[in-house]
Amino acid sequence: MVLEGLISPIKAETHPMVVFFHGFLYASVALLLSLWVFPDHTSLIMVFLTTMAAMPLIYSIIKIEEKKDLSLLPEKNILKEHSKALRVFLNYFIGATLAYALWYTIIANPTETFKVQTDTLIGLRGHVTGNAYSLGKVFWDILSNNLKVLIFCVLFSFIYGLGSLFILTWNASVIGVAIGDTIRSGIMEIGKEFSFASGGQYVSIITYGLFRYYLHGIVEIGAYFVAGLAGGIISVAVIRHDFGTKKYEKILMDSSMLIILSLVLVVLAAVLEVYVTPLLF
User: CA-to-CA distance for 61 and 33, rounded, in angstroms?
Assistant: First the structure.
């Protein structure tokens, strides 16, 4: 009852940047507790504990967003109001991701602590090289995988209320490990080549590690949060027995627009990942 009580949903929407630090704190505490209590299963337990800490805040915000859908505001104003919640979600995600990246970089044996995430990355990593045909194939493979995650976010939010939060926290841990691995490898390379490394070299490595994944990652995760918000709003409406009423029709219309927006973002993220990121990194 301590972590979830540190910030109210109203304050979170008013000052979304504060949630960044809460996401960082949630993930860090979850990792340390997992190492202490469940050292053999840290990679999964820390994701559950991070999700548990964030649940009260995120659920309260989704309930607020469902009430906004029942207001008489024009649709464009409703979407503008939802953007406040999305900023909260993104700041939570960024904070958790950077926490995982930091701990992966500094702990002694990161591949064991983040074993499941490391195995997942090994399975997902591919080389975006070759002719236009192979690039097109990679694009469709990535897009189809992202669409599956998007569907899971909607379904998990609808069935479990905050089910998508676990999926998104899991993605934060995987991306955090990818960033941490890039930074850690770069630091090791510097250690091999130079007896003394300047602060600028370390800053360059950290910047490279962050932007290599965040260029397309923020757009992709934004799509998942939009989809999760849509499913969560529908779920709350059903719980409140708005199903079958005119209010529910309005909620469905708003949620449909959110899902369409998430689909557009998923396509954009795939384009950035396949055709833009490899050119820059």
Answer: 27
